[in-house]
Every structure is written in C-alpha cells, then in structure tokens.
Amino acid sequence: MGTPAFALPSLKRLYEEFQLIGVITQPDKPAGRGQKLTPPPVKLLAHELGLEVFQPQKKSELLPILERLKPDCAVVVAYGKILPPEVIKFPRYGCINLHASLLPKYRGSAPIQRALMSGEKTTGNSIMLMDEGMDTGPLLAQEEVFIEEEDNLQTLSEKLSKSGAELLIKTLKSWFEGRLVPKPQEGETTYAPPVEKEEYRICWKASAESIKDRIRGLYPDCYTFTDRGERLKLMKVKVVQAEGEPGEIIDRKNFIVACGEKALQVLELISPKGKRVKGQDFLRGYPLERLF
Prior knowledge:
The structure is a single chain. It is elongated, with a radius of gyration of 22 Å. The protein folds into 2 domains: 5-176, Rossmann fold; 197-284, Formyl transferase, C-terminal domain (Methionyl-tRNA Fmet Formyltransferase, Chain A, domain 2, Roll), CATH 3.10.25.10. The mean pLDDT is 97. The strands form 4 sheets. Strands 9, 10, 11, 12, 13 and 14 form a 6-stranded antiparallel beta sheet that branches. Strands 5-6-7-8 form a 4-stranded mixed beta sheet. It has helices spanning 8-17, 41-48, 62-69, 85-88, 111-117, 153-176, 208-217, 279-284, and strands spanning 23-24, 29-31, 36-38, 53-54, 74-77, 95-99, 122-129, 139-146, 223-225, 231-240, 249-251, 256-258, 263-270, 276-278. It has 292 residues and is of the alpha+beta class. Helix 1 packs parallel to helix 6 and helix 5 (111-117) runs antiparallel to helix 7 (208-217). The longest helix is centred in the middle third of the chain and has 24 residues, at 153-176. Strand 12 (256-258) and strand 13 form a beta hairpin.
C-alpha cells in the first residue's frame, strides 16, 4: 500500500524479494494546468510489473480487498490514509509500515519536510508494526541517516526512500522468520503535520537560518514576491553576516537580502518567467529593491 514516488524503491524491492498479490494506492487525481486525471507513481510502476492494482475511494472498501487477496502481510509505505482497525488486524503478520523519521520523532504525514524545516542534522527510517494510533505502533527496526548541508526535500527523500527500502526488506525477512520482537517507541514525541499553503511563503522577519531551512524543507516551492508583485521561487540560498531592514536587498551585486537576523545570499531561483537562473544573473537585468 503506497502512493507517491517515495514508495517506488520499496515496491521494486518487494517485487524482487517476495510474492506480491496486489497493490493498493490512492485514486487518480487532477494535476497540472489542465487538471488532467493523473495516476499516482505507485500505480504506474505496479502496472509495469504486471501487478493487480486497487484504488479504493473509501476506507470501507479496503477490508473487502484484503478479504479477497488474503495477504499474510500488508506493507504500507506513504499510502496517505489512516487504515481502519479491522484492516490493521487482518493480515497474519500484521501491517508493516516504513516511516521516514526516527520515531517517536516526527509522527505524521510530513516527517521529511518538518525535519529539514527544523534544522535537524540527522533523521532516519523506522519500520513499525502498525496499531490504531498515528505512527504509534511498536518498532521492528530503525536506521539513522545523516542530513547533509546541501540536502533538500528532493535529495533527502531520495536518500531515505532508497535506504528505507533496503531496511524494509531486511526487517521483513527477520519478522517472518520470528527473529524480531516489537519494541515500544521511546523518547521525545514530536509531530509532523501536513504543510499548510501559507507556509510556502517566506517571511523575511524570520532569521536567515530558519528561512534557509524552510527553503530546503519545502523545495522547490518556497516563494516570495518582488516589489512589482511578481513571484520568485527561491531554490538555493546561503546564510551570510549582514544586517538591514528585513526583505531589503542590501547587496545587489551578490543578491543579498536582509532577514530578521543576519541575511541570505540568493544563489539560485525560478524567475517570474519560470526559468531557473543564478541570483546574480537575475538581478543584472531586473530593477529589484526588496522582497516581500
């Protein structure tokens, strides 16, 4: 059971190592400018592999699917929906979930985004035996992953999805052989709620470090407005020692913008015309004084 690209490495490895009898994913959804119905990445890969795909519209449709398939185990990787208790209890070996954080930190739907936005230096993957709570089930395995300075949502997601798939396969083999005992989650509990639309807009009154972390965590969709009302997406920035009025461009040559604390050098951005350019190159032909 899974939906986005994050689940693809796990699906590939499960197909290679085990007998898959079906794939459950979310329904096709409108996407792009034309709002054309688009299948989720997991559905596309499942069809390539010749697997039967189910796309239930309602939670009540899940149990009949499992009753028909009779799986020994259900593997859940970023499915995107809370499973009903009767579904969780159905498989003999339970529902096993790959979650992209070191539980109980960052329970919820946006663990990678929230870890980056919080400036974490490490994160990881957890393999959990699901229960009725939100990411509260006992742990079967965990693996730490270092967050590089240059990591953003895209690169860290790829890193975690690949390492998580390998951890998942290793854990499932041990679980099926009876060599694992589920352990309760221990330590500080934090949450990773869905990202709200307003969080994508940069507030220049915040510190330069926190804005940088937000841009990394919401890559590639964090934006600001020019003094002409045009939207810029900031792709890559660097914290520098400088002061000024928040949002003011205090160095046009190097595209340095003052923040509530310190400043940011804009290294790469998406222009109002949709082109990815270096910050310095953009300012050469654009009469910009401040950002909002």
